[in-house]
Amino acid sequence: MAHEKSIGITVKKADDMPEWYGQVVVKSGLADYAPVKGCMVIRPYGYAIWQRIMDYFNGRMGKLGVENAYFPLFIPESFFKKEAEHAKGFEPEVAWVMNRDESQEKLALRPTSETIMYDSYSRWVRSWRDLPLRINQWCNIIRWEVSDVKLFLRSREFLWQEGHCVYESEKECDRETIMMLDEYEKLCHELLAVPVLKGKKTEKEKFAGAHYTTTIEAFMPDGKALQCGTSHNLGQGFSKAFNISFLGKDGKMQTPWQSSWGFSTRLIGALVMQHSDDKGLVLPPSIAPYQAVIIPIIFEDSREKVLKKAIEIRHKLKDMRVFLDDRDQYTSGWKFNEWELKGVPLRIEIGPKDVEKDQVILVRRDTGKKEPVKIADLNEKAAELLETVQSDLFKKAQKFLKDSIVEVKSWKEFEKTIKSKKIAKALFCGGVDCEDNIKAKTEGANSRCIPFEQKNVKGKCVHCGEEARFWTYFSRSY
Ligand SMILES: [Zn+2]
Asked: Which domains does the chain show, CATH number per domain?
């Protein structure tokens, strides 16, 4: 039994969230620390989740007319400096490669790919007939900002997708910037069961070089927001800097509008923190690499009979992602613990007594609830349970998010709300200096987003007392 204990999580989520999180990610086999400072290793179980996210999103992008492509990891320094705000924004975190031939220019390892992609776009876009141009790239990104890795949340290298589009008009660009944000929300809600707040970033928090940035923000149980995806309307700044122009329908040369949008392997971090518990990972069925695990309870005298039934069940559940754990070298108790740690939504137990009764025992990972189910009803019952688990996880997280938002009327209330690890919804002037001061005075609370729906914007900024421009969500963040 000592061994069974040692593979489990040794701290409680409520007591020490960072330690708990690290243990869940490593012990469930999602990822590991790397020998290189600031980097992580994504293990097969974690990569299977990323792959499911990619499959889902590739399917959605196909329907929206976005195509996948690949651009170089190296970005010439001169490209990088063409858009001044962009260059300035990324300067502190760019890793440079020195060319062996010193007469050649320095190369940046991509912290994002606007510049290298738009150089190509300037040759590919000629006429209105080439638009809209919608290209996505799945790749790795290098940002040399941190040395302490937080698996999936903060690392010098991570995986992401970045979409880059070109449009004839501002209106079209606006519409699709929001359309992609809506896609991100859908992905978080349907696949990951992670509810998000949607809105615009403030001037201080917008993407370097963007006209405006929109975002989806999840809220973690330790009272910190986690940015899960952003979609930027880039305006015409990059088009001008990279000489992208097209012959319009009116026969004149025009400057197009551009957007870019991205989410990263951070989503896996959000998923883990949102749902998991003191026993380990809890995965929503839609994203789980295995939705159910069958564990035969083996005794020597009934071995054949039980295994035969387990295989039969495995075949019966062919529409589900099911693993039959018939490994001989582990006890069933050990297997229960391991699959609990790995967050498989349903456990299907079958022992000799169950075979006699023509039943199995179904156990939910999220609630621990057990029930006997007749084998004849198993397909239907298991499918139904998976749907229930998915929607229960979402509802629980959504309730937590809603309960965490406090509409504050004064600076005193604002400070109290941030201290109590909640989200302050406050009237805000939108000023960059004002936001800097808020951050300094509250030990790190910053604006998360300006919700799209604004009602009763009347009064003074919660902090500086200037005329307020909008309601804004503030909290600490990852
Ligand atoms: Zn203010």
From this structure: 13-275 (3.30.930.10), 292-383 (3.40.50.800), 405-477 (3.30.110.30)
